[in-house]
Design brief:
Elements (H helix, E strand, L loop, with lengths): L1 H22 L5 E2 L2 E2 L5 H8 L4 E5 L6 E9 L2 E9 L2 E9 L8 H5 L4 E2 L3 H6 L4 E4 L2 E4 L5 E7 L3 E8 L3 H9 L10 E9 L13
Antiparallel strand pairs: 1-2, 3-4, 4-5, 5-6, 6-12, 7-10, 8-9, 10-11, 11-12
Length: about 200
C-alpha cells in the first residue's frame, strides 16, 4: 500500500513539473505564438487588434509587421511575418527584468556580444572564460545573445544605474552575473540566417 502511494505521489510530482515547464518561456515562442508556425491570424486571435499593421509586397512573398501596445507586462510587442509565418518577435518589457535572470528564464546559456575590433584595440578590457570573451567592465548598453536550433535570442541591456556608471568610470570590474536590466528582447527565426552559397558546399 505504501509502495502504491509512493508511485501516485511520484506521478503527481512529475505531472506538475511537466505542466510547469510547458508554461515556462521558451526561446522560439511567446504567448503561444511559435516562430515558423504561427500566422498573423493566430496573433490577432491571441492579442487582439494591433496599434499598427504594415504589409509589404516583395519578390519572395509578402511581409507583415504588427505592433501591439500596452499588453500585460509588455509596453510594446512587434511581430513580423514572412509569407504569413511568424519570424521575429520583439518585446519591450514594461516591468523590470534583470539581465542576470535571462539565462534562468529561458533555460539556455547567453553570452555578451563583443566587438572584435574593440577587443583587438583594447585587449586589457576583456577576458576569456570557457572560450568566450567577456568584458571586465560592462558598458552602459550591451547585448546578450543565445543561439538555439530554431531561434536566435538577443537581449538589449541597459547598465546605466548610478552604481554601474561609477564602476565604469573607476574601471572596477563586474564579477560573475550580467549587470543591468532588459530593455528589448528579440526572438528571431533561424530561417532568416544568411545561407547563400550553402548549395556549393553540400
Amino acid at each position: 500500500m505504501k509502495f502504491l502511494a509512493s508511485i501516485v505521489i511520484l506521478i503527481s510530482c512529475f505531472l506538475v513539473s511537466v505542466s510547469r515547464s510547458s508554461d515556462d518561456p521558451k526561446p522560439d515562442r511567446w504567448r503561444g505564438l511559435i516562430l515558423d508556425e504561427s500566422t498573423s491570424s493566430d496573433a490577432l486571435r491571441t492579442l487582439g487588434n494591433p496599434a499598427k499593421d504594415k504589409t509589404t509586397k516583395g519578390s519572395h512573398g509578402g511581409s507583415r509587421t504588427m505592433t501591439f501596445r500596452k499588453l500585460d507586462g509588455i509596453s510594446e510587442a512587434q511581430l513580423s511575418f514572412i509569407n504569413d509565418r511568424l519570424v521575429v518577435v520583439s518585446l519591450k518589457p514594461s516591468k523590470q527584468i534583470d539581465a542576470k535572470a535571462i539565462p534562468n528564464i529561458y533555460g539556455i546559456e547567453f553570452e555578451p556580444r563583443v566587438s572584435g575590433l574593440d577587443e583587438a584595440l583594447n585587449p586589457g578590457d576583456y577576458e576569456r572564460h570557457k572560450g568566450r570573451v567577456y568584458p571586465k567592465t560592462y558598458p552602459a548598453v550591451y547585448e546578450l545573445i543565445s543561439m538555439t536550433t530554431h531561434s536566435r535570442v538577443t537581449c538589449l541591456i541597459a547598465n546605466n544605474s548610478f552604481g554601474s556608471i561609477l564602476k565604469q568610470s573607476a574601471g572596477v570590474r563586474d564579477e560573475g552575473e550580467f549587470p543591468g536590466h532588459v530593455i528589448l528582447i528579440q526572438l528571431v527565426s533561424r530561417t532568416l540566417d544568411d545561407r547563400k552559397g550553402a548549395d556549393i558546399l553540400k
